[in-house]
TrEMBL record:
Domain of life: Eukaryota
Chain intervals with Basic residues compositional bias: 310-322
Record's keyword annotation contains Hydrolase: yes
Keywords: Exonuclease, Hydrolase, Nuclease
SMART domains to which the protein is assigned, alphabetical: EXOIII
Any one GO molecular function term: exonuclease activity
Region feature (Disordered): 1-109, 302-327, 439-459, 581-611
Organism: Penicillium bovifimosum
GO cellular component term of the entry, any: nucleus
Residue ranges constituting the Exonuclease domain according to the UniProt record: 381-568
Protein name (Swiss-Prot/TrEMBL): Exonuclease
Family as reported in the entry's similarity comment: Belongs to the REXO1/REXO3 family.
Biased composition range(s): Basic and acidic residues: 36-51
Length: 611
């Protein structure tokens, strides 16, 4: 790292006449000690070098050199005589063949420590070694390149290590949730990189780390968005999507509620609660604690003190062929990379929390409601929706509800919900909702300024204010106003959203089942991983939690991707459209999918089809 702490110079294009004068010092460089000379020199500017004929520039193979020479000619190595004018100096003016000195730190190929590492130390080390090998190979190729003007971009061994460490650390911090996938793509790109592109990478790295300048080349997005284009009109997309309705038969054991609980079942649940006397098991740390709806005499809502837990999920690394040499990778927590059996928790919360999954107990708090028919409204367009939840003295409750039209993605509903129980934890890490949102919320129906069509900013933080309804039942009724029983209702792991709203809807499309996991239920792909794979879209990346509007739109776009691929298959089978109605090969309106389609595998069975 350069010892000069002065602010970076303004970025500007410099030609030969604008190069800074060398620092004032003794008449010969040898009269000035090397360390003093380094401190006296100021950071230079690395320009992005266009392609040049090697014969028009002078080379320098030195790793640390003095400041570029004055404006009357190209840069000259320290102690060298200026070259004679060959008539081509103007072509190479301003292209430094020597760079200001830099002191790379002495580091080893050992990943830098992070508060929330995205993988185990062993995994990060293996990835770092591969990244360093790819960079070292390019650096070696550059050192042997015939273009002598590139010699100044050859890095020392220490500089290559530092560059690899910097890049691995950047990916670990900025792309923690998809760290392994993204950095593997980066390693492949570096491996296939050409000399010219490598020079640009080195230039950006040197400017950012040693010369305190912004990278010359604007970094490209790590993930390129994949445009969604089905080639169909919206009404035609709806017709194809109607063939993808999720069948909920035999899925009750996985949390899908298909019929309301009976009065007898509700009474049984209430009796069980009375006998339990408020004792629950914390769903984060598994400790037993007591909950006091309405508060205990001393004002406490729960017993058991603070909750020390891991907010991240356990990660079980896949087995690899190299395990025989390096040893197997041990399971760890995604939040802190600690081994499963060696850490009791990395996060401290004020209270223990719990969630309820049993249908009859959910119904004892608020009964389920089946979507009613609204004949006066006629057919209603599909709706994609998502909910955010927080922990209360009644379990996990609805605190935000968002619905958008499909396939257009227009806003239909976005409201904050006051839960029925006392709040234990708003689950801000995932819900994105804070106490500030409730404090600034406006009553539902209040005219809101039309500042933006989005309820969240680019960083994923929910904009203020939202409209507030006074109960989950009121929020549910607002959503049901948008639905008929035959209306397509789209969600990801939709049983969670339906259950927290206490809705039973007969016509749903669950993208978690539309893109089944190869291991079969109950294992499912997360919305984040599906968005990255099929949409080239990074979601849920901010530190402010999830955004239900973003998740709703993403879920709808995943359905559009599937509609596009299914339509290609239908065309091959002889299906067509007539006035936006899907017609089967026999000339009849298609109401059921072809027999060859398998949308959802049997529960617990591995998926056999690759479609």
């Amino acid at each position: 790292m350069s010892a000069d702490n002065s602010p970076p110079a303004k970025r500007a294009k410099l030609d030969g006449s604008q190069l800074p004068e060398p620092p004032i010092g003794p008449e010969t460089p040898n009269e000035l000690p090397s360390e003093t000379a380094r401190r006296a020199e100021k950071p230079g500017f690395l320009k992005e070098r266009p392609g040049q004929d090697a014969s028009t520039t002078r080379s320098s193979t030195e790793k640390e050199v003095s400041q570029p020479a004055p404006s009357h000619g190209p840069p000259v190595p320290s102690g060298s005589e200026p070259p004679k004018d060959t008539g081509s100096s103007s072509a190479s003016a301003g292209l430094p063949t020597q760079l200001p000195p830099r002191n790379a730190p002495k580091e080893t190929l050992n990943p830098r420590m992070l508060a929330n590492a995205p993988a185990t130390h062993q995994s990060r080390t293996a990835i770092l070694v591969k990244l360093h090998a790819a960079m070292a190979s390019l650096n070696e190729r550059l050192s042997k390149d015939e273009d002598s003007a590139n010699k100044c971009f050859v890095l020392t061994a220490d500089e290559v290590i530092t560059m690899a460490l910097d890049e691995e650390e950047k990916f670990a911090k900025q792309n923690a949730s998809v760290y392994v996938n993204v950095i593997k793509l980066r390693i492949v790109k570096v491996t296939k990189m050409g000399i010219d592109e490598w020079v640009k990478e080195v230039t950006s790295h040197l400017n950012a780390r040693y010369y305190k300048l912004n990278p010359i080349q604007k970094p490209q997005p790590l993930v390129q968005p994949i445009p969604v284009d089905t080639g169909l009109a919206p009404a035609q997309e709806v017709a194809v999507a109607s063939l993808l309705v999720t069948s909920l038969v035999n899925l009750e054991e996985h949390g899908y509620v298909t019929k309301p609980a009976t009065d007898a079942e509700i009474e049984t649940a209430k009796q069980g609660l009375e006998q339990a006397k408020g004792w629950e098991q914390c769903c984060r740390c598994k400790q037993r604690f007591q909950v006091f709806p309405g508060r205990r005499e001393d004002g406490a809502l729960t017993s058991g003190g603070p909750c020390i837990h891991h907010p991240g999920r356990p990660v079980h690394p896949q087995r690899k062929k190299t395990d025989r040499v390096t040893g197997p990778s041990h399971p760890y927590f995604s939040c802190c990379s600690e081994a499963l059996d060696k850490s009791s928790g990395c996060t401290k919360a004020e209270s223990h929390v719990f969630r309820v999954s049993e249908a009859k107990r959910l119904a004892s708090i608020l009964q389920f409601k089946t979507t009613p028919a609204q004949p006066e409204k006629g057919p209603m367009p599909p709706v994609a929706f998502d909910c955010e939840m927080g922990y209360t003295t009644l379990g996990m409750e609805l605190i935000r509800l968002t619905a958008v039209s499909w396939p257009e993605g227009h806003d239909l509903l976005d409201i904050l919900v006051r839960p029925m129980g006392e709040v234990l934890d708003l689950n801000t890490r995932y819900s994105g909702i804070t106490a500030e949102h409730y404090a600034s919320a406006k009553p539902h129906g209040t005219p809101m300024p039309a500042t933006s069509s989005s309820s969240s900013n680019e960083e994923g933080k929910v904009n203020l204010p939202l409209q507030l309804v006074q109960s989950p039942a009121e929020a549910r009724d607002l959503l049901l106003n948008l639905l008929q029983p035959e209306t397509l209702l789209i969600g990801h792991s939709i049983e969670n959203d339906l259950n927290v709203c206490r809705i039973i809807h007969p016509t749903v499309i669950d993208t978690a089942l539309l893109y089944p996991h190869p291991k079969g239920l109950p294992v499912r792909w997360g919305l984040k991983s599906l968005a990255l794979k099929y949409l080239g879209r990074e979601i849920q990346t901010g530190s402010n939690g999830h955004d239900s509007r973003e998740d709703s739109i993403t879920t709808g776009d995943l359905l559009r991707v599937k509609v596009g691929s299914r339509w290609n298959n239908l065309e091959e089978l002889g299906y067509s459209f007539h006035e936006d109605k899907l017609i089967d090969p026999e000339g009849k309106e298609a109401t059921t999918p072809p027999a060859s389609w398998t949308t959802v595998p049997d529960p617990g069975q591995k998926r056999k089809s690759g479609k």
